[in-house]
């Protein structure tokens, strides 16, 4: 199997869950407290909490922040949806659009006083990098960052999406520096904390495949490949491109039958019909945004394996083109 979508759809591992992680108000919860201590030490934060990583979980999280909020449109769907619900309650949200090149527009930060900003070190789907140090030079707001694919020490609050990391649960772990009240023991999802930490400790990235895949894709697809974002602007273990005159989900579905797993964004590796929201925020129309494909690399492949994968993708691409033209 060639898993080229691991940043959005992780390898689900067989995990042994000990009942020592079950929390009890009449117990000292020694095993859990040690896990919590190690998690916080690894990323240099003072405390953690868990939230449901959904629009209503994010809505509650935003209300608890108690301040003026800015949100990048390059964030996860749950965060964007939560911010929309937050606006429906009458609160103000400062939205940061995306530029044509996929980067986040930061100019509004200098013109507005905000308390918290949801902006990660990468844009979802395309994995275009965002310089959080630059963000912090433009605003005094605390930076809240989805750190599942890349942790940046410049963030003030880090969110780890348990599903993206482990393939289990819809909750997330939030690391912070006492911006929140202590979470009630009964509301702490100890399992998500354990799964996130184990996945992060075992998380691996491959940075050598990107260049080889890029060269082979250009060679095989020639004029049929193009790029919404510059390959050098994305995380070193990711590659984003587009194929002309084809819906990405068609290639995703047929490639999966050959055990080649690719994606065109959040929630789309199963070939769902929604096009990339991120590409549309970059001012591309819906039809064009359906061309988008993302690859991410956690394993090292030999040159011969990469050539084989790209040849299969190209063959399936040509077959789809022929069928669509009939």
UniProtKB/TrEMBL annotation:
Gene3D superfamilies: Aspartate Aminotransferase, domain 1. It comes from Malaciobacter molluscorum LMG 25693. Its cofactor is pyridoxal 5'-phosphate. It catalyses: (sulfur carrier)-H + L-cysteine = (sulfur carrier)-SH + L-alanine. This is Cysteine desulfurase. GO terms for molecular function: cysteine desulfurase activity. It comes from the Bacteria. InterPro entries: PyrdxlP-dep_Trfase (IPR015424), PyrdxlP-dep_Trfase_small (IPR015422).
């Amino acid at each position: 199997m060639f898993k080229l979508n691991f940043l959005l759809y992780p390898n689900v591992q067989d995990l042994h869950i000990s009942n020592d992680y079950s929390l009890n108000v009449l117990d000292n919860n020694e095993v859990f407290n040690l896990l919590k201590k190690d998690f916080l030490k690894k990323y240099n934060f003072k405390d953690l909490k868990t939230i449901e990583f959904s629009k209503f979980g994010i809505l509650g999280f935003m209300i608890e922040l108690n301040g003026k909020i800015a949100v990048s449109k390059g964030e996860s769907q749950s965060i964007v949806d939560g911010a929309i619900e937050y606006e429906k309650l009458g609160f103000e949200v400062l939205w940061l659009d995306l530029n044509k090149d996929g980067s986040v527009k930061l100019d509004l930060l200098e013109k507005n006083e905000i308390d918290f900003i949801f902006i990660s070190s990468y844009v979802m789907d395309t994995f275009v990098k965002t310089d959080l140090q630059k963000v912090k030079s433009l605003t005094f707001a605390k930076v809240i960052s989805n750190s599942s694919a890349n942790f940046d020490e410049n963030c003030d609050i880090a969110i780890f999406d348990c599903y993206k990391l482990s393939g289990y649960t819809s909750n997330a772990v939030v690391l912070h520096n006492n911006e929140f009240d202590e979470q009630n023991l009964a509301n702490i999802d100890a399992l998500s904390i354990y799964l996130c930490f184990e996945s992060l400790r075992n998380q691996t990235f491959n940075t050598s495949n990107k260049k080889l895949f890029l060269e082979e894709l250009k060679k095989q697809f020639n004029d049929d490949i193009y790029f919404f974002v510059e390959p050098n602007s994305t995380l070193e273990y990711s590659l984003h491109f587009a194929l002309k005159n084809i819906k990405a989900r068609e290639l995703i579905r047929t490639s999966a039958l050959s055990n080649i797993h690719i994606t065109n964004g959040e929630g789309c590796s199963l070939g769902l019909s929604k096009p990339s929201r991120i590409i549309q925020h970059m001012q591309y129309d819906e039809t064009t945004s359906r061309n988008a494909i993302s690859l991410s690399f956690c394993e090292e492949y030999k040159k011969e394996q990469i050539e084989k994968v790209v040849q299969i993708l190209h063959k399936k691409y040509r077959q789809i083109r022929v069928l669509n033209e009939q």
